């Protein structure tokens, strides 16, 4: 069984590629988390978790959901993490998750995909994004090969920088950076509610047909990147930057 959480579609695309190759099912964690659904799941022996990288680990809302949800019959787990640059030492913390679930950890694989974190960085234009995805395809194919053969992933890089970023920097990043107060909707907002529907943590409400952000934000960037009117900004940090979500690429392998 494949579990997938995705902010702007990169992880969803990778999960679909894996599901098609393995003829397996995908559980949409966005929907489960949004519905606060932690009911037990019959997974079968093998579990594949596909997520983006948030502050050099899997998203906290995903690890929290895993901790609260019973996986019946699960024996082995593979972690697949996409990122704009690097996953740091996420594999160490994934091993801890596997141990708490009494699962055999089959390793963590990294896939470089287009950047979406426009709260800090610049997302690529569509042409460059398609090129990045094309370069990721051999990596996804290699991941699929390991999964088909029931093989563990090769150990990812693990240097001092990786340990620093996934270790002490991760909680600092969440405490200092991951906040919703800088989000705002401009005059071009139509009140369509797309941001409300996309938010996996129910952090956005429409008041007088304008979105209002509360305090549970996970910085998935779904609200700002899927806004059809491009009406949402993250303070001054997102002004003038291209928005990115995978579906807009109309990418086909």
TrEMBL record:
SUPFAM superfamilies: 4Fe-4S ferredoxins, Flavoproteins
Signal sequence residues: none
Pfam families noted in UniProt: Fer4, Flavodoxin_5
Domain 4Fe-4S ferredoxin-type: 180-209, 214-237
PROSITE patterns listed in its UniProt record: 4FE4S_FER_1 (PS00198), 4FE4S_FER_2 (PS51379)
InterPro entries to which the protein is assigned, alphabetical: 4Fe4S_Fe-S-bd, 4Fe4S_Fe_S_CS, EFR1-like, Flavodoxin_dom, Flavoprotein-like_sf
Keywords of the record: Iron, Iron-sulfur, Metal-binding
GO molecular function, one term: metal ion binding
Source organism superkingdom: Bacteria
Name this protein carries in UniProt: EFR1 family ferrodoxin
Organism the protein comes from: Hominifimenecus microfluidus
Lineage: Bacteria, Bacillati, Bacillota, Clostridia, Lachnospirales
């Amino acid at each position: 069984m494949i579990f997938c959480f995705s902010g702007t579609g990169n992880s969803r695309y990778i999960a679909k590629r894996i599901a098609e190759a393995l003829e397996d099912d995908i559980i949409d964690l966005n929907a489960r988390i949004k519905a606060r659904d932690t009911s037990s799941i019959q997974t079968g022996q093998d579990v594949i978790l596909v997520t983006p990288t948030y502050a050099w680990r899997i998203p906290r809302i995903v690890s929290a959901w895993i901790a609260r949800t019973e996986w019946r019959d699960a024996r082995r787990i593979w972690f697949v993490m996409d990122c704009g640059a690097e996953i740091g030492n996420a594999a160490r913390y994934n091993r801890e998750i596997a141990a708490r679930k009494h699962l055999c950890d089959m390793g963590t694989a990294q896939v470089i995909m287009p950047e979406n974190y426009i709260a800090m960085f610049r997302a690529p234009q569509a042409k460059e994004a398609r090129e990045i995805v094309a370069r990721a395809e051999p990596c996804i194919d290699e991941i699929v090969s390991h999964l088909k053969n029931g093989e563990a992933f090769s150990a990812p890089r693990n240097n001092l920088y990786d340990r620093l970023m996934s270790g002490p920097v991760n909680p600092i990043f969440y405490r200092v950076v991951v906040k919703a107060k800088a989000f705002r909707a401009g005059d071009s907002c139509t009140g369509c509610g797309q941001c409300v529907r996309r938010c996996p943590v129910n952090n956005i409400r429409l008041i007088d047909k304008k979105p209002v952000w509360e305090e549970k934000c996970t910085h998935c960037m779904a609200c700002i990147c899927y806004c059809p009117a491009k009406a949402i900004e993250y303070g001054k940090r997102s002004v003038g930057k291209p928005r990115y979500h995978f579906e807009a690429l109309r990418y086909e392998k």
